[in-house]
Amino acid sequence: MRSTVRRSAWAVPVCLAALAAGACSASPASSQGGGANSSPLVVGVSMSLSGDLADLAGPAEKGYQLWADTVNAQGGLLGRKVSLKIVDDASSPTQVVTNYENLITADHVNLVFGPFSSLLTIPAASIAKRYGYAFIEPSGGAPQVFDLHMNNLFLAQPAPIVSSGDAFAGYILSLPADQRPKTAAYPSADDPFTSAIVARIQQRLQAAGIKTVYSQTYAAETVDLSPVVTRLVSAKPDLIVSGTGGADAVAEVKGMVQAHWTPKYVFFTGGPNDPTFPASVGAGNVNGIFGASDWVPQAKTTGNAAFIKAYIAKYGGTAAGIDPAAAEAYACGQLLQLVAQRTGKIDNATIISALHSGSWPTVEGDLTWDANGTPQGADSVVQWIQGQLLPVYPPSQALASPIAKPYWAG
To answer: Tell me: the pLDDT tens digits for 384-408?
Structure first.
């Protein structure tokens, strides 16, 4: 399930420490706010425009672009038009480091936003920290991100990734004993996003007496998942908790459909909240599948109705077709706007300091963070019900009651 700035107050010590490497040339003096500066406010972003993450990252790029268009139509930030400088990291952790180094030290961008995925956020955040930039990021929510202990990092989601696992485990354990699954399987791609969620759920459910009949981590670049599906079908667990991206979830559903075997409960860490998921697996096969989400179109969060209207006007489609990654990226920009409105400044030191105090209302909800950038809210468990992806747990966020997984239609 998933942005940055520079701290001018750190400019002198950072530059002295890195003078030999020429790091002082990165100092973005023009990022100061107050409205006197009318030059464009340049925000650097590394995005996976190509490579394995490109399809998943595409909605985040749209969210960034939509925010820039929206804020510029309103006059910009403190009188300065926003200019996004987006460069391709080819889904590579090595390239993302190079990109942020270049954006900061060669292009002298005023601010930066984060890339897509925890895999790329982890190395990118270290670069932003080195040069004193704030790092508001949309989708790096794995535990390893917050283990960096960086006070300049802010995930623009209501909760860290592992909380989605907590919510689903909480749902399963809330079931009456006679409805609770007796056995479970835990396949996962080797990715900090997916594996963290799966491990957390497995730990809780095993402790509650739900027997593990299969647990396997496979290489993230695996294309052929038929061996995984074969093992799942052979083990026949009541519950599958699968650490997936979109393509993996589709492959597993298709494999189970082909094998004519339907588990009682299916939870994917990624895939179900992709608007294209029903078409990919077949509309008759989507009902009953669980996922987790930080955003749904029905949310009554700050600016959500305007976001949806603007998104459809710019990109077409319907509200149901908006990927949550677009809302996450859009929220990064909302946070910059809020800082500018509350403080009258838009430099990195101000952004870092301000975001560590108070609550910040966005399309992702009212956001707050601890000292390491871990958001302090909660995600919801969602489920496909009659062709709609709806929050079903916890009850305080539910728009529908969970349903039993029907047999695959295929």
So the answer is: 999 899 999 989 889 899 999 999 9
